[in-house]
UniProtKB/TrEMBL annotation:
DNA-binding region: 129-226
Pfam families in the record: Response_reg, Trans_reg_C
OmpR/PhoB-type domain sequence ranges: 129-226
GO cellular component: cytosol; protein-DNA complex
Gene Ontology annotations of biological process type: regulation of DNA-templated transcription
SUPFAM superfamilies, A to Z: CheY-like (SSF52172)
Name of this chain's protein: Response regulator transcription factor
Domain of life where this protein originates: Bacteria
């Protein structure tokens, strides 16, 4: 399985052996890992660590995994995998009703857990996995390649970053100032009209003569509308 860089995983379990086993295994796979022995400790570290994936044991003293799951789903965009020593339907249903994304029963295979983590990341954080589809567009970030309806677009590095920024944020109006900051960098000292030049070039390469894909909103900026 290809490693996914930059993914933060929080493991919460009151069994030290499981914490150590999962921490070492996940670190070896390239993940950033934090561990917590109980629900309270997990909740205190979440605001700074901001995990992409949380692996929660159901049965813990104090705040159990169900309550941590409920509180996490209220405030964070996080994929939650619940662990339990009991293979009971009621526990599965309760966890899923509270927002859990997946469920595993102890003892479990590390390889299977790893596969489920990768699946959740691809589903909830596709750009971190290196590729994602948005309407007719497919972005493969590792290859620095964008396809439109299966056709690979011939883009310069700046055109690639600009189109990716607009497509990922489709439906949202992006001002020239924001585009300059995110694509060219906050310290860019040139004329903001350079954005117009690159938008014109992108429209030509997209065959967007009627500006249906990249729309101009006068005085506001640009917006990508997906069919």
């Amino acid at each position: 399985m290809n490693p996914i860089k930059g993914i933060r995983v929080l493991v919460v379990d009151d069994e030290p052996n499981i914490l150590q086993f999962l921490e070492l295994g996940l670190l070896n796979e390239g993940f950033e890992v934090k561990t917590a022995p109980d629900g309270m400790a997990a909740l205190t570290m979440i605001p700074q660590f901001r995990p992409h994936v949380a692996i929660l044991d159901v049965m813990m003293p104090g705040i159990d995994g169900f309550e941590v799951c409920r509180m996490l789903k209220k405030s964070e965009n996080v994929a939650i995998i619940m662990l339990t020593a009991k293979d009971e339907v009621d526990d599965r249903v309760k966890g899923l009703m509270l927002g859990a994304d997946d469920y595993m029963v102890k003892p479990f295979s590390f390889e299977e857990l790893l596969a489920r983590i990768h699946a959740r990341v691809r589903n909830q954080f596709p750009m971190l996995a290196g590729e994602a589809s948005f309407g007719p567009f497919r972005i493969e970030d590792r290859r620095k390649e964008i396809q439109l309806e299966g056709r690979v677009l011939e883009l310069s590095p700046t055109e690639y970053e600009l189109l990716k920024f607009l497509v990922v944020n489709h439906g949202i109006v992006m001002s020239k100032a924001l585009i300059l900051e995110k694509v060219w960098g906050y310290d860019f000292g040139g004329d903001e009209n350079i954005v117009e030049v690159y938008i014109r070039s992108l429209r030509e390469k997209l065959g967007d003569r009627e500006h249906r894909l990249i729309r101009t909103l006068r005085g506001a900026g640009y917006r990508v509308d997906l069919p």
